[in-house]
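Could you help me review a protein record that somebody else here produced? Do not assume that whoever made the record got everything right. The record follows directly below this note.
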Amino acid sequence: MRSNAARPTTVDEHGRCYRIDPDSTHSEGQTLNQRTSVRTRRRVSRGDAEEAIRTLLRWAGEDPGREGLRDTPKRVVGAYADWFSGYSVDPGAYLRRTFEEVEGYDEMVVLRDIAFESFCEHHMAPIIGRAHIGYLPTDRVVGISKLARVVDGFARRFQVQEKLTAQIAACINDVLKPRGVGVVIDAVHQCMTTRGVHKRGVSMVTSSMLGTFRKDGSTRAEFLRFIDIERKGTA
């Protein structure tokens, strides 16, 4: 199958993907957003991060030196490196490799029930949910696993759900240039279920519809039927 390599993309300070001149990319292949993230991390050493966890443990009334907590700072910092790995990737890069030999297929492509974990930027509490993505291709499609990687690339950062939804849709729209994009996210926010109002069994649904998905009610309705959002709960 013949592939079509799109021009490189980068992500601005708001998480939006856009195409760039290859000559503007760093010699090591890093985008401006990635280099900024790396520089920021280098200013805070792993030792500094672990000490910050010890401070929080002491603030909570614990003794960081006791046996059960002795290695906790190291584990937490390691977990953070995984949970927030999205700061070191360009989600748009996953969409660069596309395919044209699809026998003229130009109908909707939908990937539903993409599980993700993120963290609320207000309380640093987990956001657990599922994303549903649909797009109407022009002359090329992308591997479906790359759509899931785009979700993870944006989710593995501090987020608010509205921004996460818009970032995913804008990235797909800007890089693939489809006729339309639809993104729906259904998620549970532990900043609401485990603190504050303590309301369990509540999920938040957000959507971003671009192009034909926004302009054409029948296209939008078809997408919503495919993902069956009304019958689905959040795992």
Q: What stands out?
A: The CA atoms of residues 147 and 165 lie 13 Å apart. The longest strand covers residues 109-120. Confidence is low (pLDDT under 50) at residues 1-10, 18-29. The longest helix spans residues 161-176.
